[in-house]
């Protein structure tokens, strides 16, 4: 488990380089006292492991930008991929407080060694397109959702896909969460596309997507706590947390209404990864406990595909 004595740790993503796992994570000082304040103070930390259990911390990867930058308030969740040029590309969320609302855009940093990162001079790469996605209006939602990029190669070799936490520009205010979508040929130039799901699935937002092929079946993970679900789903849901959807295609579309809960809200931001024995495991961060927010990253938890979807193996 990754737990820092002086900081909360929450959202994270993993890049594998040979036998070594590189963990990038959001963290903020516990000297803030109130964990809800962490979002406006988030930096991106870095640690490595060869077993997903024991982590060695490395220098931080990224910090927030200067006044006027798209990431002047905080750097948030992203992903790392290796491009055809062997360089590493980190796509991340930049947050800027504009009139009390966090306006989110997606930026890029690159590295030759996964250690030293340089922000791209063309940032931000992309932002919510009002043709399909909600822009902050001071009334509908508490922020402008355009974050948590998950980038992966097209299975047929036709460029790259990006899944994004976003909200549709129409529908009931508490039920607009959709799978935001963009495409690229070269990892630098991105075209925002219509969402890969429809609003009305029961979620105000769908956070931190992750899609993998597990045992021959495509599995999409996303995250939503009970407080951000639509009112009608809240009446029947036992809890929020990590959700999974078994689907047919890595590139969508996705019928989010068929998603099922994988965990309760004690765990959040699920990531699937193969462990050193090539078995699929889930990592997540410890969210809520008896004394409130915890803020530490779990040890790997084995998973398997059951008849009703992805399931944690009993301990």
- Secondary structure tally: strands: 21
Gyration radius, to the nearest Å?
Answer: 18 Å
Task: Write out the CATH superfamily name.
Answer: Glycosyl hydrolase domain, family 43
What is the average per-residue confidence, as pLDDT, rounded to a whole number? 96
* Total of DSSP H or I helical runs spanning 4+ residues: 1
Please report the first level of CATH classification, the CATH class: Mainly Beta
Order of helices and strands: EEEEEEEEEEEEEEHEEEEEEE
Q: How many domains comprise the coordinates?
A: 1
N-to-C span: 16 Å
Keywords: Glycosidase, Hydrolase
InterPro entries: Fructan_Metab_Enzymes, Glyco_hydro_32, Glyco_hydro_32_N, Glyco_hydro_beta-prop_sf
Domain Glycosyl hydrolase family 32 N-terminal: 18-223
Protein name: Beta-fructofuranosidase
Structural overview:
Keywords: Glycosidase, Hydrolase. It is a single chain. By secondary structure, the chain is mainly beta. The mean pLDDT is 96. The protein has a single domain (7-302), classed as Glycosyl hydrolase domain, family 43 (Tachylectin-2, Chain A). A hairpin with a 5-residue loop joins strand 5 and strand 6 (88-98). The chain is built from one helix and 21 strands. The longest helix is centred in the C-terminal third of the chain and has 4 residues, at 231-234. The radius of gyration is 18 Å and the shape is globular.
């Amino acid at each position: 488990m990754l737990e820092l004595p002086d900081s909360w740790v929450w959202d994270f993503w993993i890049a594998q380089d040979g036998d070594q796992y590189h963990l990038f994570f959001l963290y903020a000082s516990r000297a803030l006292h109130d964990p809800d304040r962490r979002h406006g103070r988030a930096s991106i930390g870095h640690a490595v492991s060869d077993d997903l259990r024991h982590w060695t911390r490395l220098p931080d990867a990224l910090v927030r930008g200067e006044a006027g930058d798209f990431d002047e308030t905080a750097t948030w969740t992203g992903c790392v991929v290796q491009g055809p040029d062997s360089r590493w590309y980190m796509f991340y969320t930049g947050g800027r407080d504009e009139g009390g609302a966090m306006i989110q855009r997606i930026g890029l940093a690159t590295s030759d060694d996964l250690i030293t990162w340089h922000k791209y001079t063309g940032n931000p790469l992309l932002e919510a397109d009002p043709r399909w996605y909600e822009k902050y209006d001071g009334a509908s939602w508490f922020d402008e959702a355009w974050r948590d990029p998950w980038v992966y190669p097209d299975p047929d070799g036709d460029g790259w896909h990006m899944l994004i936490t976003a909200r549709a520009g129409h529908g009931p205010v508490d039920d607009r969460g959709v799978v935001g979508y963009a495409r690229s040929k070269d990892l630098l130039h991105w075209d925002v596309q219509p969402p890969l799901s429809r609003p009305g699935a029961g979620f105000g937002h769908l956070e931190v997507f992750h899609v993998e092929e597990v045992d021959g079946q495509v599995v999409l993970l996303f995250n939503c706590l009970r407080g951000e679900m639509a009112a009608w789903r809240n009446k029947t849901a036992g809890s929020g947390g990590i959700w999974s959807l078994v689907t047919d295609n890595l590139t969508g579309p996705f019928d989010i209404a068929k998603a099922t809960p994988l965990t309760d809200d004690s765990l959040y931001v699920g990531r699937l990864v193969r462990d050193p024995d090539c078995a699929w495991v889930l990592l997540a961060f410890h969210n809520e406990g008896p004394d409130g927010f915890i803020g530490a990253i779990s040890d790997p938890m084995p998973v398997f595909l059951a008849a009703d979807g992805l399931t944690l193996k009993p301990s």
